[in-house]
């Protein structure tokens, strides 16, 4: 077990060559957002851009396009039909898979709204997407009743559950998971061949046949809706930039918590909101880049 520190993150940060362009430093597809949860799409995509992804495309239902595009002019968009619940309609499934297989990484689930269409899209991504896949929120909930599908997936996959979502994935109680975080995360990663980011105090990052990491950064002020969307976007951004999915999770979790700690010092734990975390991602990255390079 390794406790992540700045030197570990510094060495994970991907190199950006002088000849870099928006395609060479990572294209990310975010299948996110629904009517009443447009903010989740904004937060995850903006966090991904702040963490270095060169091109972020948001696949979203048509009703929230005006809101999200006005909030995030740096992104590009795949505007899709929606169902009666305001989620992406399953008729868009083939279009999503087409763009997913062109992307360097795919993030699915932030603000997606759990319904039959969302489940269908999530399962198709697990089965057919050849790009690395990050599942968060209702992306996780969508596969929870079809969990064995993960065993058949041969491409890199990250799940980012909180304890409640982990309970739905495993059938274990939240209290048991809280008391057995490391063993629960490692067993799930081993059983399903994924990288598992079990969120909470001292976030656990586990993957099959790999070192387990414990994240020491973060604070109670980050316990607010939208914080997880920011983390998912940061992890997916590193994956899109070509970083190993487990190391992407390690760096994303550490920088997410560190940005939150910087925000807490400025604003207090009471006043911290997810956009404050995003605003301080550059400060967190800079702190790690400037860490003493002596071993």
What does this structure look like?
By secondary structure, the chain is of the alpha/beta class. 45% of the residues lie in helices and 13% in strands. The protein is built from 13 helices and ten strands. Strand 3, helix 3 and strand 4 form a beta-alpha-beta unit. Helix 2 (38-50) packs parallel to helix 3 and helix 4 runs parallel beside helix 5. The protein is globular, with a radius of gyration of 18 Å. The relative contact order is 0.16.
Features:
ten-stranded mixed beta sheet, globular, 45% helix, alpha/beta, 295 residues
DSSP, total strands: 10
Mean pLDDT across the residues is 96
Give the H and E element order: EHEHEHEHEHEHEHHHEEEHHHH
Radius of gyration (Å)? 18 Å
How many angstroms separate the termini?
19 Å
Counting DSSP H or I runs of 4 or more residues, the number of helices is 13
Instruction: Give the strand order of the largest sheet, numbering strands 1, 2, ... along the chain.
Output: 1-10-9-8-7-6-5-2-3-4
Strand pairing plus helix content: what structural class? alpha/beta
Strand content: 5-15%
**Low-pLDDT segments, ≥5 res:** none
Report the principal-axis shape. Answer: globular
């Amino acid at each position: 077990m390794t406790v992540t520190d700045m030197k570990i993150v510094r060495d994970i940060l991907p190199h950006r060559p002088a000849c870099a362009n928006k395609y060479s430093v990572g294209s990310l597809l975010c299948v996110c957002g629904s009517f009443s949860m447009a903010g989740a799409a904004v937060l995850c995509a903006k966090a991904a851009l702040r963490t270095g992804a060169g091109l972020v495309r948001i696949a979203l239902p048509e009703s929230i396009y005006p809101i999200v595009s006005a909030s995030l002019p740096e992104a590009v968009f795949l505007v899709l039909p929606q169902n009666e619940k305001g989620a992406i309609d399953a008729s868009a499934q083939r279009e999503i898979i087409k763009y997913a297989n062109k992307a360097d990484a795919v993030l699915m689930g932030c603000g997606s709204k759990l319904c039959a269409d969302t489940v269908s899209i999530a399962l198709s991504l697990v089965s057919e997407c050849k790009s690395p896949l990050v599942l968060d929120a209702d992306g996780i909930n969508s596969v929870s009743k079809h969990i064995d599908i993960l065993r058949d997936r041969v491409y890199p996959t990250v799940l980012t559950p909180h304890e409640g979502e982990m309970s739905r994935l495993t059938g274990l109680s939240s209290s048991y998971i809280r008391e057995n975080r490391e063993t629960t995360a490692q067993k799930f990663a081993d059983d399903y061949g994924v990288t598992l980011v079990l969120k909470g105090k001292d976030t656990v990052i586990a993957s099959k046949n790999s070192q387990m990491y414990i994240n020491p950064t973060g604070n109670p002020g980050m316990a607010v809706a939208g914080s997880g969307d920011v983390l998912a976007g940061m992890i997916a951004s590193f994956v899109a930039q070509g970083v190993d999915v487990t190391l992407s999770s390690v760096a994303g979790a550490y920088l997410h918590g560190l940005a939150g700690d910087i925000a807490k010092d400025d604003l207090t734990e009471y006043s911290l909101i997810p956009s404050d975390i995003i605003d301080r991602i550059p400060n967190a990255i800079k702190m790690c880049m400037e860490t003493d390079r002596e071993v």
